[in-house]
Task: inverse folding
């Protein structure tokens, strides 16, 4: 069932990307705050059930109080923010590597059964298109975003066209590996996803392209799997998901907004929004991935 749902989702997303690519208004920088709103609602909600997974984890470790999970989770997030403040270049580079793996894995996890080193590497190469395609198609704007995060890319290997084309080719090769032994519908999912990301980043502003991908492909796909875990009836599961995800989504969104108002005292609103989006996502991604890893291992 999840594979059929993901096929329909990818088909709708692919066609939507083609339509959005023709809208000239989506090619400028005036929608950064709207992008932040989408990330604060649709985007971060796909991780808002981490507390439920946390309850499973503390039972495995025979810990009585759920507050231990919350404290550790928040502490990891705060440590990430602190390290970013002290060593922004190093942490951002690590985050890009981790994010590439995370995007590749969660967008493909329904598709792959075997857990081995080859698939782990393929996840990384597949997800790297999210990072490299905006650098290839909108280098100036993307470099400016990285500069606002205290990471200078203008003379780095990461912005060399030959390196970026190589990354796109490796990402395509990883897709070919994954689909080599699957049926036509499943093959179509990964092919449509690959070209959807290319279309978004070729035609649209980098922050808008990332937001559309993050909210409407990555987050919705992960949320769909959570909805079906909650209830096999997708309509009932959706309302259960909204109810359970709302508290942590609202708390996280409030923390983002407080950070935005604080940073706006020292930076332009657009630059402050970039910091809130990407540093905030980093602070959530690391504990989220660690939790997923521990659940899988245990």
Result:
């Amino acid at each position: 069932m999840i594979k059929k749902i993901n096929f329909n989702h990818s088909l709708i997303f692919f066609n939507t990307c083609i339509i959005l690519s023709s809208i000239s208004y989506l090619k400028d920088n005036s929608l950064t705050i709207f992008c932040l709103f989408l990330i604060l609602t649709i985007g971060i909600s796909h991780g808002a059930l981490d507390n439920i997974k946390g309850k499973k984890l503390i039972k495995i470790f025979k810990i009585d109080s759920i507050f231990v999970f919350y404290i550790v989770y928040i502490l990891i997030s705060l440590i990430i923010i602190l390290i970013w403040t002290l060593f922004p270049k190093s942490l951002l580079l690590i985050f890009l590597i981790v994010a590439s793996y995370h995007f590749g894995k969660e967008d493909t996890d329904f598709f792959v059964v075997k857990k081995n080193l080859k698939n782990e590497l393929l996840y990384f190469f597949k997800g790297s298109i999210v990072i490299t395609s905006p650098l290839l198609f909108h280098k100036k704007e993307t470099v400016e975003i990285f500069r606002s995060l205290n990471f200078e890319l203008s003379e780095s290997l990461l912005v060399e066209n030959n390196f970026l084309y190589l990354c796109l080719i490796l990402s395509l090769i990883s897709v070919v590996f994954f689909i080599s032994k699957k049926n036509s519908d499943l093959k179509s999912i990964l092919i449509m996803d690959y070209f959807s990301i290319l279309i978004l980043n070729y035609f649209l502003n980098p922050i808008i392209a990332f937001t559309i991908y993050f909210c409407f492909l990555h987050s919705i796909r992960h949320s769909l799997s959570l909805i079906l875990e909650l209830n096999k009836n997708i309509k009932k599961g959706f309302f259960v998901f909204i109810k359970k995800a709302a508290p942590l989504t609202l708390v996280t969104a409030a923390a983002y907004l407080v950070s935005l108002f604080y940073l706006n005292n020292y930076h332009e609103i657009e630059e402050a929004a970039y910091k809130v989006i990407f540093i905030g996502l980093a602070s959530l991604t690391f504990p989220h991935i660690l939790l997923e890893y521990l659940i899988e291992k245990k």
Summary: The mean pLDDT is 87. DSSP finds 13 helices and no strands in the chain.
